[in-house]
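Hi everyone,

Forwarding the result from last night's run.
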Amino acid sequence: MQNNIMTAVNLILILSALVLAHELGHFLVAKWCGMNVEDFSLFFGPRLWRIGKFNGTEYNIRSIPLGGYVKIAGMEPDDLVQGAELPRPSLSNGKPVVMWGLSADDLANLDSGKIGDRVRAIAESAIAEGERKRLSPEGRNEIKALLLSTSINEEEHKYLETVLKADAYEPDPRGYNQKPLWQRAATIAAGPLFSLLFGFLIFVVMGVTTGLPADRGVSLNVIDSIPDLSAPSAKAGLKPGDTIVQIGDTPITTGEKMVEIIHKSAGKPLALRVARGSAILNLTIVPEAGVVEGKSVGLIGIRPKILPPKYVHYSPVGAIVKGSQIFYTMMELMLKSIFSRDVAKNAGGIISIGAQIHQDSNDGLRSLLPTAALLSLNLGIINLFPIPILDGGHLLLLGWEGIRRRKLTTKEVLTAQMLGFSIIAVLFVLVTCKDFIQVILPKIMKHG
């Protein structure tokens, strides 16, 4: 029970720190660009404690202890209204008239065929000159008088009310949607970049405090776990705790030798001598073809037991150098894993994360900190995926805006976000089911 509580506390602390580091990136760059940051909160849900308001930003602690968020004015789809072209009178000439605060969505539900040229011309002539096209005082009064008239139909009435409503819209010049494209892109990209930076900083701090591993640890020829019950190892009858003492005619005394032979034997039957307690078992297993670090190898679906690595303490400069090396290596491995054919097997969700943190909680900070660093790197990389609602999706939409030289409408943004949400929801369900089968189900069967 105590271990479970410690796991829950560590999970909340780590995920909250990672999310806050990510949101801090958005926050700092948004402030630097002069945007109106309305809220910076630790955790989600109803507010527990209002810390205060400084420089226009309210700082809060909320009730659901997981992560945090930043609210930047003008980022919500409903805030994206800039200006839309008024329907032109059929006999009118000249440039299109774009009214500030009017969106294409405002006009989408109107039957333009029922709006006469006279009403359209009155609405157009009511707009004053200026960079931001707004109604002149005389024009606003003329439209209000026309709304009281019985000479216009219902559709024309709705149209004129829409124009008046748009005239009341007053955009916040410090809003996200009022800023240049490059500032909006920088604000979005800052989140993933800060996640990567936070992961790197954890490695550097470890170098000075807990120390960094000088090696990967000693791999033993003992099976630590079998994550997938459909793997060749499970089908052949291997179990956690088994010691593989011989493969074919080759005696096995180290995990490295065991893995080397298995990797070279994709699709080939292997005769295994296995020590299980005082018993010796003879089993046959056929490794499946898979990809590890970009190479095609044979796999049987086991995790060898690994003795803890040796740790070395560094000076601050040495920690930066060593942390940079580890950061580069981890990034390379992650990217190879993401773009490999085995990406589905390598994917893990909240259950896998919880299981890893549960294991690390027993080993202390030396195990928890590297896991936190790797999770931060993963958060940064995954958020750059070009899926709407993720930061990469926002950057994709901004790129499309830059190409077509026109901002997306509210409807277009909402459609993209719904698509992105659907993709994320499906992936979440699939990954959670995979985690349940590989992590939870074996424990249920073991204790059942």
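The first strand starts at residue 37 and ends at 54.

Cheers,
N.
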